[in-house]
């Protein structure tokens, strides 16, 4: 398979493009957006994902663009700080883990691949025939040996090849919204958090950006809405967070003006197989673990590396699935557990969480407590041993 189309210039898509080119394939990437998506939210790279980044020659550049977050502070309704936590512990990071803005990472990956990968922007796949002929919204039809779906949890490629999204979606009972807001709290590499029963608001500003990001998460029964109706989504957010104190009313006003507004359910994608005919899926399109897992970006990077390597080694999609599925399963298991700690259901549970954060630095068994917080993510992040596909080819 030498002529390959990747649908989606996501982190999974650009990483797959790089490794397929390293293995000698001709690669085309089609992306619905008019350019590589900038901005976005903070993402983590851990364990084997950092090994992949190092093998791409990007580790120093990624570390140079670290968010450099220092501290996370919880505030009460009146704006008084009530508990403080190290930012790495708050994000479940240990050792060499790196946190970076999603847009910064994807820009590095795009710059690394743009010279020898064909990128087609402002277009998307509309059909994939059995002989590999692909039709597009704007471009003329073209034939490819393989189509890689790297177009996210709401993948068009997956729908074309496998059917309705609802068959594969596992709802975790929560929603999330993220957008850029003015840094009125004057945060400097800090996270400011306020939690109410069933609802959490988090505002942060990194060392590389003078603005701030507002993140809202709340528990909810399934909502009915149009994925393209941003105004309607903003109204749903306003209703969900109504009555929450602290800075939330001002943040909701800022969200109404945001041009990078993101809104989605906290859900996972579970599939029995990730390939069908000439189509194979990677990243969130195949095995979205949800933002609650903290491992979506690492799964995308590792999955891209393994997919390209197994295709080059002759094992194909079946070998890719054998290598990746145990790793995916242990990381997807993080989502349902983590979301319970991100959105607390009762005032009593909120009180207990804040109390634990306050006492943690002083507890004699604090190292065991810290391992309970970060250890599960660390173990899941390292639950795969990478092959050296270039060495074996």
TrEMBL record:
Domain FAD-binding, first and last residues per copy: 2-313
Tree of life domain: Bacteria
GO terms for MF: FAD binding; monooxygenase activity
Keywords: Monooxygenase, Oxidoreductase
Name used for this protein in its record: FAD-dependent monooxygenase
């Amino acid at each position: 398979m030498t002529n390959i189309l990747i649908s989606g210039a996501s982190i999974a898509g650009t990483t797959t493009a790089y490794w397929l080119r390293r293995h000698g394939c001709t690669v085309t990437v089609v992306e619905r957006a008019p350019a590589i998506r900038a901005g976005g939210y903070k993402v983590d790279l851990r364990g084997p994902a950092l090994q992949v980044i190092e093998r791409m020659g990007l580790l120093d550049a990624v570390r140079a663009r670290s968010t450099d977050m220092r501290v996370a502070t919880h505030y009460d309704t009146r704006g008084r700080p009530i508990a403080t936590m190290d930012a790495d512990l708050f994000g479940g990071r240990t050792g060499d883990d790196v946190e970076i803005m999603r847009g910064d990472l994807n820009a590095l990956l795009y710059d690394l691949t743009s010279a020898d990968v064909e990128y087609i922007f402002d277009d998307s796949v509309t059909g994939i025939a059995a002989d590999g002929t692909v039709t597009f919204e704007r471009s003329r039809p073209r034939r490819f040996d393989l189509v890689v779906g790297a177009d996210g949890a709401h993948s068009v490629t997956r729908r074309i090849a496998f059917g309705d999204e609802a068959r594969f979606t596992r709802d975790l009972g929560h929603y999330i919204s993220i957008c850029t807001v003015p840094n009125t709290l004057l945060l400097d590499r800090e996270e400011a958090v306020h939690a109410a029963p069933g609802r959490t608001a988090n505002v942060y500003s990194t060392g590389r950006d003078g603005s701030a990001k507002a993140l809202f998460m709340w528990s909810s029964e399934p909502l009915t809405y149009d994925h393209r109706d941003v105004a309607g989504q903003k109204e749903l957010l306003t209703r969900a967070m109504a009555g929450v104190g602290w800075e939330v009313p001002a943040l909701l006003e800022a969200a109404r003006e945001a041009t990078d507004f993101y809104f989605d359910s906290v859900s996972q994608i579970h599939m029995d197989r990730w390939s069908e005919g000439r189509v194979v899926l990677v990243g969130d399109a195949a095995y979205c673990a949800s933002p609650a897992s903290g491992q979506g970006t690492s799964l995308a990077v590792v999955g891209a590396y393994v997919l390209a390597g197994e295709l080059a080694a002759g094992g194909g999609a079946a070998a890719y699935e054998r290598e990746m599925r145990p790793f995916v399963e242990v990381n997807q298991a993080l989502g349902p557990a983590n979301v319970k700690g991100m959105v607390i259901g009762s005032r009593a549970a909120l009180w207990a969480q804040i109390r634990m954060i306050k006492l943690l630095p002083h507890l004699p068994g604090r190292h065991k407590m810290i391992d309970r917080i970060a250890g599960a993510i660390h173990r899941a992040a390292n639950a795969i041993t990478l092959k050296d596909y270039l060495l074996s080819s």
